[in-house]
Design brief:
Strand content: 25-35%
EC number: 3.5.1.88
Radius of gyration: 15 Å
Number of domains: 1
CATH architecture: Alpha-Beta Complex
Order of helices and strands: HEEEEEEEHH
Function: Removes the formyl group from the N-terminal Met of newly synthesized proteins. Requires at least a dipeptide for an efficient rate of reaction. N-terminal L-methionine is a prerequisite for activity but the enzyme has broad specificity at other positions.
Strand order of the largest sheet: 1-2-3-6-7
GO molecular function: metal ion binding; peptide deformylase activity
Protein name: Peptide deformylase
Distance between the termini: 31 Å
CATH class: Alpha Beta
Cofactor: Fe(2+)
Structural class: alpha+beta
């Protein structure tokens, strides 16, 4: 089991658009294994490759008994119905803010054999699929907050010892 070190808000890798996975070899399998091992820690629902410093389009999830990964994911469906749900992020620890998300989401991508896969869900799973896909597009959930909440989040983040500056 390999538990990878997390990258935190302020690290440039979290704001970059991740590159597509083009090699389906042992190195990609190791990445997927690391993503799955790292998301297995208690209190974790999803983990995108940039959060462990790898700028590739891959994420893992572990939500309500459903565990897996998606390579080259893209959101293909979001419900029109949304809700405000409290959201946090492993790369922005200890900060939780109400965030508007679609109640249902569908993601399509591929597996390690480059075969198509589809993952869908409602509630927390929908939130996870949206959140992790955002990471691959260089977005943090903080980018989705209202301007007032974002201002508060930025102030709080800068006061944390994990805030990454260089």
């Amino acid at each position: 089991m390999v538990m990878r070190e997390l990258r935190y808000f302020g690290d440039p890798v979290l704001k970059a658009v991740a590159e597509p996975v083009t090699r389906f070899d042992d190195s990609t399998k190791r990445l997927v294994d690391d993503l799955l091992d790292t998301v297995d820690a208690p209190g974790r629902a999803g983990l995108a490759a940039p959060q462990i410093g790898v700028s590739l389009r891959a994420f893992s999830y572990n939500v309500e008994g459903s565990r897996g990964y998606v390579l080259n994911p893209r959101i293909v469906e979001l419900s029109e119905e949304t809700h405000e749900i409290t959201e946090g992020c492993l790369s922005v620890p200890q900060l939780w803010f109400p965030t508007v998300r679609a109640k249902r989401a569908v993601v399509r991508g591929v597996d390690l054999r480059n075969e198509p896969i589809t993952v869908s869900g409602e509630g927390v799973m929908a939130q996870c699929l949206q959140h992790e896909t955002d990471h691959l597009d260089g977005m943090l959930y903080l980018d989705r907050l209202t301007s007032e909440r974002r201002r508060d989040a930025m102030r709080e983040a800068r006061q944390r010892d994990w805030f990454w500056t260089r």
